[in-house]
Amino acid sequence: MPHRLAARLQVKHLRLIAAITDQRQLSLAAAALAITQPAASRMLAEIEGLTGTPLFERHPRGMTLTTVGEGLARHARNILDEVAEAADEVEKLRLGHGGVVQIGAVTGAAVGYVVPAIRRLKSVAPEVELHVQVSTSDDLIKGLMSMHHDMVLGRLPPGARLGDFNVQRALGERVRIVTNAANPFAGRAEVSRGELSGSEWVMQGPGAPIRQAIDEAFLDLAVAAPRNVTNTASLLVTLALLREREVVTPVSQEVASLLTGTHSNLVELTIREDIRVAPYSLVTLKTRRLSPAAARCRDLLSEVLRQE
């Protein structure tokens, strides 16, 4: 009997039970559901046939629930609430107003592009759950290929099959040098690259685009690349080391603005010769169909890139 009832009881039956419970009259319940009274009467008889017992007692002034009716009405209300919530969630997912989005980005792109895109997305879809991983381009592209990221703002590694990706390139970025305000070079109107070769550097490890840009910048001047180097991709470690006056660090424009704007003890040095790093790109897999929320986020990131 329980299995038979569960298999044959339908949402329309639950709606009728809830409507009669609220309205206390069959005619009013039928009107609330936009069906005729005879149709409502037949449906109630069908439900009571399935349960094998009356659900309502009929009185001159209306209908009241029996003990069995009270139990079924309580569950009917809970189930209808769950159905309504499910329908609402499906609609939000369909429109990109909900769901989960996984973004991977290198540090500069995370600050300069991902954050503005997140603010725009949250203003129209606050229930979207966003995950942002900041790492090196190599790790991020691996994450994209293994479906851990919906999209990546980074650089495609050498040898990557371009045909596998959708790529929107950003402009190349100028490297900025940030240091402690007590650094001897901090008061200078202009500093040459060569003068910084003997400084204590904190930067990403060999092979990272910004590290390559620094090494090539010194090579262009026929000056030895910095040898006093702490290798890290962690912004927190970099901040801790920048407490020392001798330390300098190469970062993107977006990160330089963030560091000097939020830490009064940090300044940006004016470098006489520009140091530029290869541009990063907004990358997605051609074979992966994005969820509505992820597609919406990708479009916002694309828009931010076009506005730079």
From TrEMBL:
InterPro entries referenced in this protein's UniProt entry, alphabetically: HTH-type_LysR_regulators (IPR050950), LysR_HTH_N (IPR000847), LysR_subst-bd (IPR005119), WH-like_DNA-bd_sf (IPR036388), WH_DNA-bd_sf (IPR036390)
Residues forming coiled coils: none
Matching Pfam families: HTH_1, LysR_substrate
An example Gene Ontology CC term for this record: cytosol
Signal sequence bounds: none
Keywords recorded for this protein, A-Z: DNA-binding, Transcription, Transcription regulation
GO molecular function, one term: DNA-binding transcription factor activity
Annotated HTH lysR-type domain residues: 9-66
Family to which this protein belongs: Belongs to the LysR transcriptional regulatory family.
Record-given protein name: HTH-type transcriptional regulator GbpR
Organism encoding this protein: mine drainage metagenome
Name of the coding gene: gbpR
